[in-house]
């Protein structure tokens, strides 16, 4: 079995993070809608976000400066913003 090479630049780390968040969003749309409405997104998607974080961590070089910035930004840009039309007290 071939070992995956680690991502060593922020652009590719960002691409991976956005892909992970897109998958989470795709398979959890209804749960995300309810969670945003109830301001419980991070509690309700804790398992999915942790699984995504582990995948991201396994693929991105630990020496990459600011390595977690793309993942954290993707949570907002991909997971939250696309559901911004939902009536919620958080906005």
Which labels suit this protein?
5 helices
Describe the structure.
The protein has 91 residues and is an all-alpha fold. It has one domain. Helix content is 63%, strand content 0%. The chain has helices at residues 10-27, 29-37, 41-44, 46-59, 69-80. The longest helix has 18 residues, at 10-27. The chain starts with 9 loop residues before the first helix and ends in an 11-residue tail after the last helix. The mean pLDDT is 90.
In short:
The chain has 91 residues and is mostly helical. The chain has helices at residues 10-27, 29-37, 41-44, 46-59, 69-80. It has five helices and no strands.
Count the helices. How many? 5
Q: Give the CA-based shape.
A: elongated
Q: Rounded to an integer, what's the Rg over CA atoms? A: 14 Å
Q: How much helix is in the residues?
A: 55-70%
| Total beta strands | 0
Strand content: under 5%
Report, as a whole number of angstroms, the end-to-end distance.
47 Å
Low-pLDDT runs of 5+ residues are none
Domain count: the total is: 1
What structural class should be given to the helix and strand makeup? Answer: mainly alpha
**Major β-sheet, in short?**
none
Mean pLDDT over all positions: 90
Helix and strand succession? HHHHH
């Amino acid at each position: 079995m071939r070992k995956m090479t680690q991502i060593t630049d922020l652009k590719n780390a960002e691409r991976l993070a956005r892909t992970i968040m897109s998958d989470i969003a795709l398979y959890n749309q209804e749960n995300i809608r309810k969670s945003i409405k109830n301001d419980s997104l991070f509690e309700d998607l804790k398992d999915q976000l942790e699984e995504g974080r582990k995948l991201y961590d396994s693929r991105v070089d630990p020496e990459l400066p600011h390595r977690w910035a793309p993942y954290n930004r993707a949570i907002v840009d991909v997971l939250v913003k696309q559901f911004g039309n939902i009536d919620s007290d958080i906005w």
